[in-house]
């Protein structure tokens, strides 16, 4: 479970990190000192839960929640108890008072893990194979697209993200290339390397390359090198 700590006090963030180190199920993927940093981090990292202070310079914790979409689970962490009712009005999972007591944090972590298990059991849709005729929703920052997979010519791995190439657009999505490969029809989308999946319908040319490999040119202009092993797989897949 991915978590972000949002608190303007560095020592408070460090104390919470130290306490959460007892729970390997909770992975701290980022820290933010204010709402502006937090909004960008939440958008990029897509955490499952945020540990959120209320009183911070600029926007407070409640104002931050009004600004973000796809709100993760929220645990408020504050030195003030007067916001508790409002916190639960915005469906916060828990409300921790500073200084945090280890036994109280243990209860919170248990709530988080139980909520995650329940959500997965109730709302996870069945996974099915996507064909080139399907359309997919792609979101990068404030921009959104509803794209036919037949228009996607290339998927490019960039760390924990994948860059989706279609038309003149190249948005990033928070997925691994392995995750996408499991959903795509191998007759159309070919794993060219650790970094690329190519849409075979967009192949414009193929050249013999070094050490028995191939160089594939796509209609969008991209040139993707295939190793000898992947070249053999492609030949086998495409031959009669």
The total beta strand count reads 15
CATH superfamily of the largest domain: Response regulator
Largest β sheet strand count, sense and barrel closure: 5 strands, parallel
The CATH architecture designation of the largest domain is 3-Layer(aba) Sandwich
Output the number of helix runs: 7
Approximately how much beta-strand content do the residues carry?
A: 25-35%
Number of domains: 2
Name of the CATH first level of the largest domain: Alpha Beta
The SSE order reads EHEHEHEHEHEEEEEHEEEEEH
Write up this protein.
- The chain has 240 residues and is of the alpha/beta class.
- It has 2 domains: 2-123, Rossmann fold, CATH 3.40.50; 135-238, OB fold (Dihydrolipoamide Acetyltransferase, E2P).
- Helices cover 31% and strands 31% of the residues.
- The protein contains 7 helices and 15 strands.
- The strands form 4 sheets. The protein has a 5-stranded parallel sheet, sandwiched between helices. Strands 10-9-8-12-11 form a 5-stranded antiparallel sheet, with no helix packed on it. The chain has a 3-stranded antiparallel sheet with strand order 13-14-15.
- β8 (152-158) and β9 form a beta hairpin.
Question: Can I get a quick summary?
Answer:
The protein is α/β, with parallel strands linked by helices and 240 residues long. The chain is 31% helix and 31% strand. It has helices at residues 10-20, 35-45, 61-67, 84-89, 102-123, 177-183, 228-238; strands at 2-6, 27-32, 49-52, 73-78, 94-97, 135-140, 143-148, 152-158, 161-166, 172-173, 189-191, 196-199, 203-208, 214-218, 223-226.
